[in-house]
Amino acid sequence: MNPARHFALIPAAGVGSRMGASHPKQYLDLAGKPVLAHVIDTFHAAPSIAGVVVVVSPEDGYIDDLAVKAGQAWPRLSIVRKGGATRRESVLGGLRALADHANEEDWVLVHDAARPGLTVALIERLAHALAEDRVGGLLALPVVDTLKRSDDDGRAERTVPREQLWAAQTPQMFRHGLLTRALEQAPDVTDEAGAIERLGLKPKLVEGSPRNFKITLPHDLALAELHMKGLG
Ligand SMILES: Nc1ccn([C@@H]2O[C@H](COP(=O)(O)OP(=O)(O)OP(=O)(O)O)[C@@H](O)[C@H]2O)c(=O)n1
Ligand SMILES: C[C@](O)(CO)[C@H](O)COP(=O)(O)O
After folding, report:
1. Where is this site: Transition state stabilizer (predicted)?
2. Residue 136, pLDDT score
């Protein structure tokens, strides 16, 4: 049987409301090119990635210009205009489109367009760690801050023990068939691993990087700039 291939699936159909910018955060400039371009470049620099699927909203007016500017630099890129109302719906739209090329056992690495700090080394770390794994897993970081649970008045009610607590990152890597079925059955999850857990399976946690953070709020872009310049 042929070895399972690895496909990247980049949900890029969000509006970036928390960023409050004039256009979606995945298209904001970061160190001279859009946030999303950094992610697509990184996956194209990873030799293990057979294809790169970007899921955008049907009305996205930016992605085509990006692809034209990239020219021959993105030969493995496929644009899927199946972005949905939630990240989960967008990922499902991408998985269904990818079904024409991937088989059930192929790996899918789902990575947020808003995490431009991804590196080839992190991709290879995750792929290597899960190569023989039957479930799959995700990049994540052990929680280092003390965590508080608040009451309804915004006061600290209690401290949450942080042992064995991790902050999920992406990529989250699962086999195409399993991930599709899991997400179809879990309408309210915020990440792929959550859907897999609902099946009673335990995704493997693989150490990520603080530089692989998600650009969510305005100050995140400035921090990402510092990282890109090697200052952060
Ligand atoms: N309906 C959606 C919502 C989010 N995403 C993507 O999922 C990733 C992580 O989501 P998030 O950081 O929440 O992005 P937004 O939903 O755009 O941000 P906000 O919640 O601030 O609007 C982003 O790359 C975003 O483009 C998506 O493809 N489809
Ligand atoms: C997938 C994710 O980035 C893992 O931390 C996170 O769940 C995305 O959440 P968002 O609210 O869609 O940004």
Report:
1. 18, 25
2. 98
